[in-house]
Amino acid sequence: MEYHDKQSSLLLNLALLACTGAAVVGGWFAWSADQSLLLALIMGATALILLLVVVAFHSLKLSVTADGITASFGGIITRRVPWAQIDRVEAAPYKWLQFGGWGLRWDGRGGCAYSQPGVKDQLIVHLKTGKRLHVTVKNAPAAMDAVREFKL
Known about the structure:
By secondary structure, the chain is an alpha+beta fold. It folds into 2 domains: 51 residues; 89 residues, PH-domain like (Roll), CATH 2.30.29. The chain has 4 helices and 9 strands; from the N terminus they run E-H-H-E-E-E-E-H-E-E-E-E-H. A 5-stranded mixed β-sheet has the order 5-8-9-7-6, with helices on one face. Strands 1-2-3-4 form a 4-stranded antiparallel β-sheet. The longest helix is centred in the N-terminal third of the chain and has 25 residues. It starts with a strand and ends with a helix.
């Protein structure tokens, strides 16, 4: 039994899109009001960067399959961990303060987190190298059932 989970934060995506729109409008006003090309270019570049962030982080997908565990932000930033590299997996509550927020985060102690706001549980994938991958998950019991099926 495979497990697939897709998480997205509508509020976060809307906020980033609003900031992108504000940067575009600000750049247009800067250009039309006083012909400030430099400010218009800076605002345009800011809008482009924010739009790329929305595209990259709009959703988080988690898959537990026969090949291993995969976490992916928007299909762009992906981490695939084959079962041969995994020591053990556990489910636990996600403590966002440990990583300083949501998104793609590092804790400075060998842990990397792929997380979305509003998701309370996580899978902690302990690698044989001693590092950890933390991935937020909507249905931790179902994900752990899939882990037990493939890992044993």
